[in-house]
Specification:
Elements (H helix, E strand, L loop, with lengths): L1 H9 L8 H10 L8 H12 L40 H13 L11 H8 L3 H13 L3 E4 L8 E4 L5 H7 L1 H32 L1
Antiparallel strand pairs: 1-2
Helix pairs in contact: 4-6, 5-6, 7-8
Protein name: Helix-turn-helix domain-containing protein
Pfam families: HTH_36 (PF13730)
Length: about 200
């Protein structure tokens, strides 16, 4: 049942409204339902072996999708300092997902908001909010295609870190404050390390 349900959901196929509660009850009956993730991972590793290392240098065989990954622009990492402008980790994940859906020939992505909600585990409302955030910080262009049709999206390249911090003062302020906090912890840890080394002399 679990494999069929998972495939149905991943394929975006509709499930009868009354079936959801039955599926949820069946899932809750699993013997591993209350176990922490660490215990489940350990058990599975003992039975099936450890998960393989994600080695980007390995060229996958034809049709093998296990090494697929979403290309992420390097400078996107600095957008984590844009929280004062509404940027969140879930908005960054949504941006990456839209990149994954980008059609090279048509130069746009057009996943439905429902597909985006299912793939991120977020509500449709959160998806719509995050789309607005991505537009407001200059990471996304949106073309509304009307009721019943999927919107079209064009992901835009992130600003370089220098451009970002020059353009958005609150991001720069957050970066400076974070640098101060991390620097303080680093100096404390370095002092502890020196003190320990001194004890061994």
């Amino acid at each position: 049942m679990s494999k069929h349900l998972i495939e149905t959901l991943l394929n975006g196929e509709p499930i009868h409204e009354t079936a959801y509660d039955d599926y949820i009850n069946t899932i809750k009956e699993r013997t591993d339902y209350e176990k922490p993730a660490e215990a489940i991972t350990k058990e599975r590793s003992e039975i099936y072996g450890a998960q393989p290392v994600f080695d980007k240098s390995v060229k996958p065989e034809e049709g093998d999708r296990t090494l697929d990954f979403i290309k992420m622009p390097t400078d996107l990492r600095y957008y984590s300092y844009m929280s004062d402008y509404g940027m969140t980790e879930s908005a960054m994940i949504l941006y990456q997902l839209i990149i994954d859906y980008f059609n090279k020939e048509e130069k746009k992505a057009y996943p439905s908001q429902y597909r985006l909600a299912m793939e991120t585990g977020k509500s449709v409302r959160t998806i719509n909010h995050n789309l607005k955030v991505l537009r407001s910080v200059g990471l996304l262009q949106v073309r509304r295609t009307g009721i019943g049709a999927n919107n079209e999206y064009r992901p835009l390249l992130p600003l370089t870190s220098r451009e970002l911090f020059e353009r958005y003062p609150k991001a720069l302020e957050r970066y400076v404050k974070h640098g101060k906090a991390v620097g303080k912890i680093r100096r404390r840890d370095e002092k502890r390390k020196q003190d320990k080394e001194a004890e061994w002399e």
